[in-house]
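Journal club side-thread
Mid-discussion, someone asked how the predicted structure for our own chain would compare to the paper's figures. Pasting it here so we can look after the session.
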Amino acid sequence: MPINDGSDYTAESIKVLGGLEAVRKRPAMYIGTTGPMGLHHLIYEVVDNSIDEAQAGFATEIEIVIHIDNSVTVTDNGRGIPVDWHKEENKSAAEVVMTILHAGGKFDTGAYKVSGGLHGVGVSVVNALSEHLDLEIWRDGKVYTQSYVRGEPTTELEEVGKTEKRGTKITFKPDATIFESTEFSHDILAQRLRELAYLTRDVTIHFVDERTEKTQIFKSEGGVVSFVKYLNQSKTVLHPEPIYIHGERSGVIIDLAIQYNDTYSENVQSFANSINTKEGGTHLSGFRSALTRTINNYGQKYNLLKDFKEGISGEDVREGCVAVLAVLIPNSMQLQFEGQTKSKLGNSEMKGLVESLVNEKLGEFFEETPAVAEKIVFKSLEAARAREAARKAKELTRRKGALEIDSLPGKLADCQEKDPGQCELYLVEGESAGGSAKQGRDRRFQAILPLKGKILNVEKARFDKMLSNAEIRTMITALGTGIGSEDFNAAKLRYHRIIIMTDADVDGSHIRTLILTFFFRQMPELIERGHLYIAQPPLYKIKKGKKELYIKDDRELEKHLLRNIAEEYTVVVNAKEYTGDPLFHALSRMSEAESMIKKLEKRGYPTSIIEQLASERAMDKKFFQEEKNLEVIKEKVLKIHKEATAVINHDPEHGLYELDVKIKNYRQFKLSWSFASLPEWVRLHDAFRFVSEFLVSKIMVQENGNREEVSSWKELFRILQQSSKKGLTITRYKGLGEMDPEQLWDTTMNPEVRTLLQVKIEDAYEADNIFSTLMGEEVDPRKTFITEHALEVRNLDV
């Protein structure tokens, strides 16, 4: 796609509809919620603006970086936000976009033909809900910057330098006083960015997560066809190439790809202007109606529906169907959604438009490709017969009372509370652990269901076979929701917390995976509603003398060991003694400093230089405006590494100085304002303010009258770390059976102290792929998965 120069995108393209006054007071009105969904919408809003630029032909590259402090940088090579003066608002167009609600080019139908965005509230909402936001614009050969704190500009829009680049760079940190948590989920973002790459031609999306040092590149040449192939990658498909339908109706562009596989579930993803309409809407209704009608028409025309003269249902024709439907609705038609979260398309005309196109094109495809058409019809017939068999099986089990709530399973130890919101059900591995759990529980609100052996793998089983499995029937009955699309009702759930509790060994892991597979494939709504949890028994048992202590994870273990050192040792620095809490806080800061030094070293910065600079004064933006400050750093670098070469250069884009350094065996690196802005550097410098008293050549360590002299804080930290396990026996906990009922209550079942892991589907596509790979019929994808991920395994003793 040729890059449009976008010279007509100016201040006059920015339309203003309102101010930001209410955003910080009532954020949920603008982003739906202050929970995880609202937090991630901040990134979506900024990225959607970049995607609008790409769809209009102005951008080809978008980069999203999550920094270690959960601040985010989004960069694109689009036109750059306009910087000229906005006459109506009497401020720059960039400041209008950043500070006034509903201000943006998408409200001017000439600026964008098609756009997404969160109710069009604009990036101003991101600005209002951020602790700080830094804007950088490359436009017309110039660089402009502006900074904001909680939506208020702290600087004017300044021209700071010259550049050959164009585009926009926005860095923001969500406000912790507004959001329940500011921790971004890699998987949630990866799913969204992957979708955008498939739905936006000729754009490359780079996703960098500095917290895990993971980088992904999303780029798709084939659009929705490639998307469907990705969704089917670990499945056995009925026809090698997806059916592709593309057309335009009344100005709406419709893109659809369909491919069937041999599984028993449907996976249809629908989008409107790149927004994932998870709850469907009028476009999906049109597709489903057309699919059912076309398959039935073809089957009846060629006498393929012998046992089902009246036709087969929509549920049957969608079994094994993987499809991606994307519609692009022009701004002139006005995109309509039901609900705050934009998850259901409401444009009434879309049903007829999609239905007519799919009826026509899919009918033509079936006539031209009868071999594929017959496979799809026979697959649908097979589904119809299985549904009939399952209906009979359910009727039979109902007559026997096996699925009725009135006849709860005998091995279920139910609770006394009748309010489902107060009740929890433990699914426990084996009778012996079940016995301990029954004795250890609080019978007022905790129910226990022991599961015997390994339950059926539902990934490989049809519905009727699943219902014949005793353990699965027991679970369904205990839950009370019913099963299957006709009978399942989440409102009838008897326990609002379902907790999987298995051993941390091979069998326990397998049973947990089988239970998760059942819920993911048969009751995904319970996961989506947040009802499913995994019990997190402590990972370690620490024994000191006769005292036993359970530790939940590695972080808590490190904290406990540091606390143990602080109680046993005294450190003397410049005649000042540290022991107990003061020593613990100092050691915690040393641990933080060591962690940040390692992260910076991975980025290519030598430890020796980093430590030297961290102990000096803070390097703010003004520091890099003075060349003489860089001269001082240069001298220090050359003093530490005599063989190094260090050259001071001027950064024309930002009007600042920077030091380019080359040292043997290290990558070339820059000491610049960009370096001093890194969250790792900021946290290291902050830690060093507390460690500064230990930056001396003589430190004395005392324990039980023994004294030892060390020469640096790093040596002190290493020696104390090595001594931290003295007198302790640390064993990795593996089985529920190792605990008596009292210990089980104290560590794993007591709501006051236990840790539960809530099961969430954050990247539904990858989750579906992993379940198919690990639990499905195909062996080769499983072998490949194990080979590729073998080196990532930790704690192989499971």
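Post-session note: The radius of gyration is 31 Å.
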